[in-house]
Write a structure and sequence with these properties.
Blueprint lengths: L7 H9 L2 E7 L5 E6 L1 E2 L6 E2 L10 H14 L5 H18 L11 H4 L8 H18 L9 H38 L1 H90 L2 H5 L2 E4 L2 E4 L2 E3 L9 H22 L6 E4 L6 E5 L5 E5 L8 H28 L8 E3 L2 E3 L4 E3 L7 H27 L1
Helix pairs in contact: 3-5, 9-11, 10-11
């Protein structure tokens, strides 16, 4: 039916198989079945041909086509191909009869024979008529009643629009004709004015051309001047860049020199604050032991320090005192220090100018002769330390050692300790060595202060 919206699935189903509809029962009680062979080319609704399109004769087809040819212009070739393709694809989906690519002629279709193929020929005749009508217009046929009514309404609206446009254009042409007759005099006056204005403009144009010629000459002169200025500018920028490069090099050199100066100044300050004696002779303590450069000077029953370590500590002690005496340009009375590593000695010069070699190392033997010489050497070293202290007192009255030295003893405010091993305990001897190293460290600190000033 016209106006119904068909979805794609329903259209495909109707295109693949013919549609049959049942009419009301006849008088004898049977049901009539009608096969749908055509559909509307706009809404795809199934159509039933009118009885006037059945059993078409040759004369009726020719008369109908002549009526259409009298109205429409000849069929364009492109429209024929378009309709042929459209009809070949559309009717094959709805018709039970197979359509050939080349349509039969009117003579082949419209014969008056009544055989079994008359129905198929009726369909072919109707289809040929629809193709002819579609080719002569912009609308594909056949159409249902609803789509035909809509088409007629649209064509009526277009006709009215065209008629109104035609009337407007006719009226406009008439008005233009009247205005042209009335404006001839005005046009002649305007033409004279335009001629006068043209002469004025021509004079202005000639003046402008002369001015343009003069400006072109000036432009050429300015161009030459511009080239010269650009050449000078380029030369200037080259010189400027060269000066900038040299300035940057000078700045970098200055920064490098200033950086080196600051580094050297900082290093000099560090070196001024650095004392070689503190680095070369580090005197400290390790529990009950006094140490010099990490070597313990002393022995305990619970900690039997190896004599090699003790002898090495005595070697550093003799070397330190020997260097400080040389820095002060001081000489001991009756003594000469002989630093020699782990076998350092001290020479005692007697009244007869004899030299007594006293060892400041021990072989670890408990023999009386070895121990007595070692004790004599330690006593002589303590006397040398006292003499050094007296020399410092002469130069600096405020200098004072933390432990007093008296002969072979060194004491604090409570107890006096002997520096000899004989008739002494290892604990007291170790403590006496610790006191002696402490006094030596005070002398070293005074020496470092004098060197800094």
């Amino acid at each position: 039916p016209a106006g119904k919206n068909w979805d794609c699935s329903e259209i495909e189903a109707r295109m693949s198989t013919p549609t049959t509809t049942s009419s009301p029962s006849t008088l004898d009680g049977t049901t009539a079945t009608t096969t749908v062979l055509f559909c509307c080319q706009t809404c795809f609704a199934p159509l039933k041909l009118h009885s006037s399109l059945k059993r078409l004769t040759k004369a009726s087809i020719i008369s109908q086509t002549r009526e259409i040819e009298d109205v429409k212009p000849p069929i364009p070739f492109e429209r024929i191909e378009q309709v042929a393709e459209s009809s070949a694809t559309t009717y094959n989906k709805f018709e039970k009869v197979k359509i050939r690519k080349e349509r039969p002629s009117v003579d082949d279709i419209c014969d008056d024979t009544n055989d079994d193929k008359s129905a198929a020929k009726d369909n072919q005749a109707a289809m040929a008529l629809f193709d002819f009508v579609s080719a002569r217009s912009d609308i594909d046929h056949p159409l249902c009643e609803g789509c035909t009514d809509l088409l007629l309404d649209r064509l009526d609206a277009e006709l009215q629009n065209l008629q109104s446009q035609h009337a407007e254009e006719s009226l406009k042409r008439e008005l233009d004709t009247v205005n042209m007759e009335n404006d001839d005099e005005k046009l002649e006056e305007e033409l004279k004015d335009l001629e006068i204005e043209e002469q004025s403009l021509l004079e202005e144009l000639r003046a402008a051309e002369d001015e343009h010629t003069q400006l072109v000459k000036e432009q050429h002169g300015l161009d030459d001047e511009l080239v010269e200025i650009r050449s000078k500018e380029e030369k200037y920028w080259r010189e400027y860049n060269e000066y900038q490069r040299e300035l940057i090099d000078f700045d970098q050199q200055q920064e490098t020199i200033e950086h080196k100066y600051e580094q050297t100044k900082l290093q000099l300050q560090i070196l001024k604050k650095t004392n070689v004696f503190n680095d070369a002779f580090h005197i400290w303590f390790d529990g009950h032991f006094g140490t010099i450069n990490g070597f313990r000077l002393g022995r305990l029953p619970t900690v039997p320090v190896n004599w090699d370590e003790v002898n090495a500590a005595w070697g550093y002690t003799v070397l330190l005192l020997h260097i400080m005496v040389q820095r002060l340009q001081f000489k001991f009375e009756d003594y000469v220090l002989v630093p020699n590593g782990s076998q350092s000695r001290i020479h005692k010069i007697t009244s007869g100018k004899e030299v007594l070699r006293l060892p400041l190392y021990s072989l670890g033997s408990k023999l009386f002769g070895d121990t007595s010489k070692f004790d004599a050497g330690m006593e002589a070293f303590l006397d040398c330390l006292r003499q050094f202290k007296d020399c410092v007192d002469a130069r600096d009255p405020h200098f004072k050692l933390p432990y007093m030295i008296n002969g072979d003893t060194i004491s604090d405010s409570v107890i006096s300790l002997h520096v000899k091993l004989q008739h002494n305990t290892e604990e007291n001897w170790t403590k006496a060595m610790k006191y002696m190293l402490t006094n030596l460290k005070w002398c070293l600190a005074w020496m470092c202060k004098q060197m800094a000033t």
